[in-house]
Amino acid sequence: MSRSGLIPLRRNRAQAHRKRVHALRFETLEPLTLLSFMVTSTADSGPGSLTQAILDANANGGGTIDFDINGGGSQTINSAGLPAINAPITMDATSQPGYNGSPLIRLNANTAGTVGITVERGGSGSVIRGLNITGFTGGILLDGAANTLITNDTVAATQGTGIAISGSTASGNIVQASMVENNAGYGIDVSGGASGNIMRGDFISGNGAAGILLTDAGTSGNVVQGSMIGTDGSGSRPMNNASGDIYITNGSSRNTIGRPGSGNLISGSAGDGIDISGTGTSLNVVQGNFIGVNRFGTAAVPNQEGVNISGGASGNMIGGSAYGQGNLISGNLDNGVDIHDLGTSGNAVQGNRIGTNGGVTGAIPNRGNGVMVVNLASHNTVGGVALGAGNVIGFNLGNGIAVGQSNTEGTTGVAIRDNAIFANAQLGIDLGDDGVTPNSPGGPHSGPNLRQNFPIVTMVTTNGSATTVVGTLNSTPNTTFRIEFFGNDSWSSNGYGQGERMVGAILVTTDGNGNAGFHSTLPVGMAAGQVLSATATDPSSDTSEFSLGVAAIAAPQPSAAPRLSAASIAAPQPSASMTTPPPAVTNSPPPQTTVTVPPSSTPAAAQARARAAQLRQELIQRYEAQRAATLQKLEASRIRTASVHPTGPRPVR
């Protein structure tokens, strides 16, 4: 051992020099004790005041501020403006005797132009708990502060924004279980590059601007979850935020509104439920929310529009394909989802219920379209081929989905895939928002989704477990298209289908004249009398309107083939075989095949009827040819047998 008695020392005799061993010395630090400062007076300054407690806590590098004013109960502090917090301070108004969940300490402005509580960067890590803050120009300002908790507070009736979180260093802050209501400006304003902040379990209603504003480049990664925004405390009546519930704009990106199992109630706004706007406003996610309905998803508490994406916002996701990611977007005064403006692209609407109640058992219609994509907002997606990506879009008072507002508008590349679209008052899909767009020869054409032609379905047969579909597509030559087939329980009023449930999809390639036929069996059954419709989507994701509906008929059951035996093919006696003609065969036509289409005078209806008659005649001709060939083979076999074995077949030895 070395002389210190701490470290064993080994000597190597071959070394020319001597190693030195240094003992480490440790010094025990005194534990850091935060000071506690008591507020005992409602005075705006002086001993026992909140102002003095903040000054003392700042001077001592932080501490805890507790309250015991006049022995407890409700107290009001009228303030001309408190000092900014620049050290970690826990301001705990729940310590006031008598506190039972509602704030007892009211902090009220008696001078215009002041902010109730300001936490500067040096005050990061502070806690503001259990206060009622009213009347100031702003309620609480986190000015570059990080990791600050605002909890169980009421911030109401200020002359501006209730709570503001600002600055590139303002990250990791949490606003939870607080009431932010009836402020003249925004409820909560997150700006200037503030990132990674969380707003959860809050009540944000009745504000003069948006309930929550997320704005500016760098303002990213913020989360809003489990909150009630735009309704009263029951979640069943509006208490509107005047310019929308949540507004994401000016380059704010990668924010998350709701999460599976922790969505928000976003209803009752005089503006839009969620507004995502502006170039660079991208990659925001909206999941698991109720938008335009009550907290139970059983009745409308409308916004103007449910979700609005505009002004070049791109790459945003409304819903998702995984369980619980979809939103309920129903009951709104206009469209459920509205995507518009040049450059507004790459957005996806997936896995949502739009126009139904929460259980998809009844209607809470949006009064406009379920989804509308207009004004050159190209290359957006509604639905998708991934499991769970399709939306349920039903009962809306306009179209299920509208692309463009006229037949000349250039909104293109709007992929509409694998959705369940039904019971909408107008069309399931409307290109141009002007009623059925008839097919035109060839393609591509000008107009919304290049006015992609829909398929012509001519026959649908079903055996209950599989469905066979026959038809044609005329469109752009030498191009591969995805054709999706949908089953419906009944006809639409105009005869053109909606798409209640997916039956299957195929790929077809047109020839040099733009024509392709299909005769496909899909592994999903339909009941006889149910109506099949179809859409076509080109490689650029331009999806057509729904085709004319065709009713499914029961497939004929195949008859059992006769079994041949030696006795049944034995030749008759020579005299009889040479003198008796073969038995007559009745020339019976194949079972009657009917293609049912609704009464209509449209060219598409006439085309479908003509094609059905042509197909039936082709089937009869094919049947007759096969029958004649079979009889010819049987007769040839009989003659050979009679000539080789005139007295019957040779016995087997």
Write the layout of secondary structure elements.
Elements: E1 36-39, H1 50-59, E2 63-67, E3 75-79, E4 89-92, E5 105-109, E6 115-120, E7 127-129, E8 131-134, E9 138-143, E10 149-151, E11 154-156, E12 163-166, E13 174-176, E14 179-181, E15 188-191, E16 198-200, E17 203-205, E18 212-215, E19 223-225, E20 228-229, E21 246-249, E22 256-257, E23 265-266, E24 274-277, E25 285-286, E26 290-291, E27 307-310, E28 317-319, E29 328-329, E30 337-340, E31 348-350, E32 353-354, E33 371-374, E34 381-383, E35 392-394, E36 401-403, E37 415-417, E38 420-422, E39 429-431, E40 456-462, E41 467-474, E42 480-488, E43 501-509, E44 515-522, E45 531-537, E46 550-551, E47 553-554, H2 566-569, H3 574-579, H4 603-644
Parallel strand pairs: 1-2, 2-4, 3-5, 4-7, 5-8, 6-9, 7-10, 8-11, 9-12, 10-13, 11-14, 12-15, 13-16, 14-17, 15-18, 16-19, 17-20, 18-21, 19-22, 20-23, 21-24, 22-25, 23-26, 24-27, 25-28, 26-29, 27-30, 28-31, 29-32, 30-33, 31-34, 32-35, 33-36, 34-37, 35-38, 36-39, 40-47
Antiparallel strand pairs: 40-41, 41-44, 42-43, 42-45, 45-46
